[in-house]
Each structure stands twice: as C-alpha cells, then as structure tokens.
Amino acid sequence: xxxxxxxAFDPWDPAFLADPYPAYAELRAKGRVHYFEPTNQWLVPxxxxxxxxxxxxxxxxxxxxxxxxxxxxxxAPPGEHxxxxxLNDHGMLDLEPPDHTRxxxxxxxxxxxxxxxxxxxxxxxxxDELASxxxxxxxxxLLTDVAEPLPVAVIAEMLGIPESDRAPLRPWSADICGMYExxxxxxxxxxxxxxxxxxSDYLRELIAARRKExxxxxxxxxxxxxxxxDRLTEQEMISTAVLLLNAGHEATVNSTVNxxxxxxxxxxxxxxxxxxxxxxxxxxEELMRYDTPLQLFERWVLDDIDIAGTTIPRGAEIALLFGSxxxxxxxxxxxxxxxxxxxxxxxxxxxxxxxxxxGAPLARIELAASMGALLEKAPTLRLTADPDRKxxxxxxxxxxxxxxV
Length: 405
What we know:
5-stranded mixed β-sheet; CATH 1.10.630.10; 405 residues; alpha+beta; 3-stranded antiparallel β-sheet
C-alpha cells in the first residue's frame, strides 16, 4: 500500500493548493485509504467511504466522552491553549452523543426554519445593497466588498449583535479557524487563544444583557430554550454562537469567491447562468461541489475499523477528504466539468450524519441572494487579475478576487 506521501498529496505545496483535484484522482485510483505520516492521519478519498464514515458511530469528533487522553494514547493539549479548547469543545460540532444530542436539540428550538425564513428579506436587501455599492464603485474586491460582509452581518443580525460591535467578528473568526488547519503553528495557536478569550468575554456580556432585557434574537432564544427542565449552560451558549458565526460565514465566504472564480474560468457556464437566472439554485449546489470550501473533516477512531482490508486502530485519526469525494467519478458524471444544470448532485459539502450543518438552509439563502444580486446588478462582472490562493488546505479560499463591472 502506497502512503499518501508517496503520491501527489502535499497540502503545503502551493501547486497542490492551487489545484488539489488531480492529486485526489491519484489517491482514489491507488486505493480507498492512505496513511499520511506528516499529520499522522489516514486519508479517505472516495465518496462512498466518506459518506458512510460520516455516519459511522465507531468514529467521533471527540473521544473524551469515552476515554481520557492517556487511555486513547494521546497527549492533553498544552495548558496555554485551554481558552481555545474550552470554546471549541463545548460546541456541538466537536461533541458526540449524549451531549451533542442534547445541545443540538436545544439549539434547534431557537434556530428554527422559521428563524431562517424570517431572515430572507434582510439577506436579500443586504445582498442588493452590497452589489449596488460594488457597481457604483466600478468594481473592487469581491471578497471584502460582498462575500465577507454579507454572512457576517446576517449571523450578527440573527444573534442580535449590534452593528457597532461587529468589526472584530471576522478577525476573531479567522484567528480561531486557523486552528483547524493541519499542524497549526504556535503563532496560530496564540492568535486563536487570544481571539477565543476576547470573543467569549464579549458574548458573556451580551448574554448577561439579554438575560435582563430579552430581544427577538437568537441569543435570547438560546437563553430561553429548554426541554424538560434542561437548558444550555452559559459556556454552551457562547460556544454555539461562535460556532454559528465561524462555520456559518467561512463556508459562505469561500463558496462565494471560489464559485465566482470558477465561473470566470468557465465562460460558457457563466453565460448560461446570465441568460437564465433560474439556474441559481442548482448553480449554488454545483459550485459548492466543484471547488469545495471545506476540503477535509477529521474523525477519531473510537473502535477498530476496517477499510478495504486495512485495519485502522482505535486512537488513530481519519481525514475524510470532502474535496475528493465531491469529484468522485463513480458518483458524479464528468466531475471535473462545471455543470450548473447538474441536478443529481449528492455533494457532501455540508457534511452528513448527526453533524450535518445546522446552518445549511441559511447558507443556501445567502449564496443564492448574493449570486442573484450580482447577476442582476452587475451583468458584465469580470475578473481583472488572477487571485492568490490562501495558504490553507482545510478551509479553501482566496486572498481576494478583483473584479470590474
């Protein structure tokens, strides 16, 4: 069995980061699982395996509901990283049942389909404003002028964060999310810890204010959410709010810029979309598949598991390659071809199983609103310079996207 390091998989190589999909094809052709020594992970590249393992309870986002660090053969995180881990480990994305089940049930009482539906006019109005401002300026950076402001403002509006307090949200989120990359540096960890402390302190004050004066916002809803006498702890509310911001806007921001960059490189598809804006819903799904914003999702092996005759032992870590799964030719016809009319599109960009993205409906609304507004108000939108890729692998995005109208 070839290891991933013997193949073309190199998540620190700029050439790989620019286009990882040929390396994924090689991984799929060489087998169903590959050990990658630099990160001590087992890479899983096939759609069927990724989809199945996302639902397999022998794997977990954490192991601490069953084992101590020592029992699992792992070292505890450094003490100086504690604020980040306290914040991260109380969010439902990194919990397993029964804690995950309880928190998701309570959060779902506040973050309802009705909550999301009520935001639609705000999302559409803001998307129109941002697109109009871009047109009035004759162009700009699609990342900073449209892609970033929209989801950050929407999540902040939903949470009830005043406009005057929103400036630090994006930097806090970016610093925290740096810890989700492979082998983060101590500098990255220090930034994440500082952001975790500052963001948590801010939310603690906001929660205290909402306890005194509840509003029509998600923070107030999380305070009120209860089930048979059970309520969220303050830390669970803080971690939930941060998770909704981080996961909610990182995927939308990167889907927006990755998507438009793909469209600019596929002129016939862009022309078809401009000619028929009713393609927007399938275009959103296809663009999320075509250049996936979250390339990798990790799972701990809680009980020995067999993949294609290879036993992955308890204590190991599996890296599920979403980007590769979304280009698997056994599932997607001509996967390297961008097809905005693709209707048979079981991409896994929002994950699957119990950790399926709770904010997926809101992300789809934001992406459709943004795309629709730009198609309407900037029908001749064009790329003015080739963008640089962010030097990240797990969260895939661009440094910017310069456009003119």
